[in-house]
């Protein structure tokens, strides 16, 4: 039986688990979340202060930096009520600036890859910043993850959260138009983490915002996620070339290691030798969600750690989901818990439009024009 957050907290209390184990989760289930707390996290080389906001509601604890909108920590209880930080990250700003492979970051102006850093819009070709070989990845060398965001904390009814703002000027990283981005992080009374993205522009541009949290539901630094169980509601995926750029094909997952329509462990087929896995050193692909683009978020994926019992369910209105199995973690990074991160120690599930969409007419459009508002929502529901 899968339990939701309220059941876990109530059951733990009935079983006599100490309040120190659950923190203030029991009280919050009834009375709503705490007001967000702000503290100094560090300083950039130029003296700019980096702050961390701590939020707690419905048994979920979330820590967010104004640097890149980074989720620096996300703690949830297991089946016994014991908390663990289930997202990879660092305990200092210096590592985020110099080393991070997008740990917990807000990604923009365009999540994922654009081939050769080029696209043509309304007859004009734009050259973007390239930072992944000849390609542009996650917005270029100075994407949204490498800027200070304005942060406004809020409490609204039983919800708590943060509203983050960043304005990307015309020409930044080669993108046309001044883009005003607004991202809202909300912790609900049930402990769900909701992300609402908005953006407007003064010139036609492309936009694809996402969140790049690295998940390990057993706890960061605890080892491999190959025994995690995963399901993805997608009958197709987008194969890539050797540079991990989509070929344009929408290939069926049936009969391949990419079939997660029925729950299986991440590691079951990861070494099958499929050419797509060899190129990516594992999974690093976009799944074409069966539901397509929807007016409201719909459930698309479930991740479960059998050891702790923790589960993560993802709902989105987006047409794609990038599943990345932590292939390029190489043991050179030390995380918040003092442990090094090695290949396969975490995975990402990034809700999105498809990679390289501006260069594929058969992919859903990512064009945003003046007078339009980009809006998308992703909801993370935790349980055990």
UniProtKB/TrEMBL annotation:
It catalyses: alpha-D-glucose = beta-D-glucose. Keywords: Carbohydrate metabolism, Isomerase. InterPro entries: Aldose_1-epimerase, Aldose_1/G6P_1-epimerase, Gal_mutarotase_sf_dom, Galactose_mutarotase-like, GH-type_carb-bd, TAT_signal. Pathway: Carbohydrate metabolism; hexose metabolism. It comes from the Bacteria. PROSITE patterns: TAT (PS51318). Pfam families: Aldose_epim. Its EC number is 5.1.3.3. It is an enzyme of class 5 (isomerase). Belongs to the aldose epimerase family. This is Aldose 1-epimerase.
């Amino acid at each position: 039986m899968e339990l939701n957050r309220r059941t876990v907290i109530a059951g733990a209390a009935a079983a006599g688990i100490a309040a120190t184990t659950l923190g203030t989760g029991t009280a919050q289930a009834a009375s709503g979340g705490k007001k967000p707390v702000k503290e100094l996290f560090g300083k950039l080389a130029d003296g700019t202060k980096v702050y961390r906001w701590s939020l707690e509601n419905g048994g979920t604890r979330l820590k967010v930096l104004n640097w890149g909108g980074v989720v620096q920590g996300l703690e949830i209880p297991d089946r016994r009520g014991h908390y663990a930080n289930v997202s990879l990250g660092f305990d200092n700003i210096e590592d985020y600036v110099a080393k991070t492979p997008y740990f917990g970051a807000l990604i923009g102006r365009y999540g994922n890859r654009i081939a050769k850093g080029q696209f043509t819009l309304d007859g004009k070709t734009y050259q973007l910043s390239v930072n992944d070989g000849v390609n542009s990845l996650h917005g270029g060398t100075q994407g949204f993850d490498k800027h200070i965001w304005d942060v406004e904390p809020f409490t609204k009814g039983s919800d708590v959260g943060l509203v983050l703002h960043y304005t990307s000027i015309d020409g930044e990283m080669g993108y046309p138009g001044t883009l005003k981005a607004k991202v809202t992080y909300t912790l609900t009374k049930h402990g769900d983490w909701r992300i609402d993205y908005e953006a407007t522009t003064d010139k036609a541009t492309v936009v694809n915002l996402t969140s790049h949290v690295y998940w390990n539901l057993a706890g960061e630094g605890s080892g491999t996620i190959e025994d995690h169980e995963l399901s993805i509601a997608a009958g197709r995926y987008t194969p890539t070339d050797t540079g991990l750029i989509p070929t344009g094909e929408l290939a069926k997952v049936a009969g391949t290691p990419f079939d997660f329509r029925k729950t299986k462990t991440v590691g079951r087929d990861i070494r099958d030798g499929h050419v797509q896995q060899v190129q990516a050193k594992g999974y690093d692909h976009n799944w074409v969600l069966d539901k397509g683009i929807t007016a409201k978020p719909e459930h698309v994926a479930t991740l479960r750690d059998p050891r702790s019992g923790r589960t993560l369910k993802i709902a989105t209105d987006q047409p794609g989901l990038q599943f990345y199995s932590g292939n390029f973690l190489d043991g050179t990074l030390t995380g918040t818990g003092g442990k090094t991160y090695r290949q396969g120690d975490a995975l990402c599930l990034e809700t999105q439009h498809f990679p390289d969409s501006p260069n594929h007419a058969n992919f859903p459009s990512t064009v945003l024009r003046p007078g339009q508002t980009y809006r998308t929502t992703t909801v993370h529901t935790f349980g055990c």
